[in-house]
Amino acid sequence: MKILVTGGCGYIGAHTIVDLLENGFEVICIDDNSRSGTGLLRGAETIGGCSVPHYRVNLCNFEDTYRVFTQHPQISGIIHFAAYKSVPESVANPLLYYRNNLQSLVNLLQCVQEFRVPYFVFSSSCSVYGNAVHLPVTEETPLQKAESPYGNTKQIGEEIIADVARTSKDNFILLRYFNPVGAHPSGLIGELQETPENLVPLITQTAIGKRPALTVFGNDYPTRDGSCLRDYIHVMDIANAHTKALQYLLEQKNTSNYEVFNLGSGNGVTVLEAIAAFEQVSGVALNYVIGPRRAGDVVAIYANNQKAAHLLGWHPRYSLADMMRTAWQWELKLKASEAE
Ligand code: WQD
Predict the structure, then answer these.
(1) What is the pLDDT of residue 177?
(2) Mutation to probe ligand 1, out of 217, 286, 287 (largest number of atoms < 8 A from CB)
(3) Is 223 in a helix, a strand, or coil?
(4) pLDDT tens digits, residue range 218-227?
(5) What are phi and psi of 55, to 5 degrees?
(6) Higher-pLDDT residue of 314, 296
């Protein structure tokens, strides 16, 4: 089974390629490398023991995208990761996000129609829930107005797919990620961001001395310790969910051709608890200060992940300690390679 992974040079894409290869899938990758190099893809090939043809194509260019499908008419499934994902960048430059994230999706869906690709898995986000009233959120929890143009591109993307699925015989699954963190246990791949915005890479960069201190964005929230609560999930668990989603479709277990799944651990963890978990695992006392709240942050969100457990047979295997341990191992590996 040949699977096209878009954005396969990125953090979640490369980890998913590892899981696909380990489960016997053949993989090709489209990635324009506008936000990543090829290092993670090469690392995924090393871990998975297979080469992955890489087409450096911008999905916003329909002709270039179409040409890849003509070279691979037997693509059985698509996992679509390629998108810009910075919340603050999307606020500063909304049109860049609407054009990139939506035009690429429309072009890809046009190819799905023309080449009759039967299975399509879309990378969505828990940001579609906004500040949910009831926790944990299920897939039926009403969506709130997106907090950012980035989150809005995910909501609109889901609606575009829903409209296409309504008159299509092809099958679509949306996976709503909570907070993917950590790295492959081999230490060969992980999150590569010079100036990350997300909590865990900022923790590890602070701990290794790349940053003087971490700022906790507010400790006056109505949570058990005043800091925001999130659902952190290991990137390899997220990766495995994509393989399980494809297998679910291949085995025609889906009852609708448009299904949504939450991908979270089901556990809520506060920022201060995440810091404590990191300190416990690394033995490093993290230098952090309490700062003002960050605009756009939701107070608390975590997943009810039972639908993916029951229907996909997906059960997260990595603990919060594993997430912190692998993230720290990766940061140490990066430092060692920079020293070479
Ligand atoms: C987590 C918590 C911060 C940095 C974002 C996107 C979401 C998804 C995942 C793509 C929050 C706090 C962070 C820091 C801090 N991305 N924090 N100090 O905002 O939950 O979700 O990434 O799909 O769409 O919005 O993740 O890691 O940025 O923040 O206190 O220096 O850590 O306030 O409570 P977030 P995050």
Answers:
(1) 98
(2) 217
(3) coil
(4) 999 999 999 9
(5) -105, 115
(6) 314
- List the one residue out of 322, 312, 186 whose CA is nearest residue 261: 312
Assess whether the C-beta atom of 197 lies below 6 angstroms from ligand 1: yes
One-letter amino acid at 108 equals L
CATH superfamily of 199-230+266-339: UDP-galactose 4-epimerase, domain 1 (3.90.25.10)
Cis peptide before 292 (omega within 30 of 0): no
**With a 6 A CB cut-off, is 154 part of the ligand 1 pocket?**
no
Please write the tens of the pLDDT for every residue from 244-255: 999 999 999 999
Q: Is the CB of 176 under 6 A from ligand 1?
A: no
Ligand 1 atom at shortest distance from the alpha carbon of 180: 9
Residues of the chain above pLDDT 90, percent = 95
Q: Does ligand 1 lie within 6 Å of residue 323's CB atom?
A: no
What tens digit of pLDDT does each residue of 230-239 get?
Answer: 999 999 999 9
Q: For residues 238 and 250, give the distance between their C-alpha atoms in angstroms, rounded to a whole number.
A: 19
CB 232 within 8 A of CB 181: yes
| 89 close to ligand 1 (CB < 6 Angstrom) | no
Ligand 1 pocket check: which of 85, 86, 198 to mutate, most ligand atoms within 8 Å of Cβ?
198
The single residue listed with the structure tokens 């506060």 is 270
Predicted TM-score (pTM) of the model is: 0.97
Is the CB of 274 within 6 Å of ligand 1?
A: no
Active site residue 150: yes
What's the pLDDT tens digit per position in 46-61? 999 999 999 999 999 9
Query: Given pLDDT bands bounded at 50, 70 and 90, which one contains residue 96?
Result: very high
Ligand 1 center to residue 165 CA distance, Å?
Answer: 31
pLDDT of residue 76 exceeding 90, the answer is yes
CATH of domain 2-182+232-263: 3.40.50.720
Q: How far is ligand 1, taken at its centre, from the CA of residue 294, in Å?
A: 9
| Residue minimizing CA distance to atom 32 of ligand 1 | 199
Would you state the structure tokens that stand for residue 328, as one six-digit string?
Answer: 């720290």
Among candidate residues 283, 238, 39, 251, the one with its CA nearest the CA of residue 124: 238
| Structural domain spans, the chain | 2-182+232-263, 199-230+266-339
pLDDT at 194: 80
Which residue is catalytic, options 11, 150, 221, 248? 150
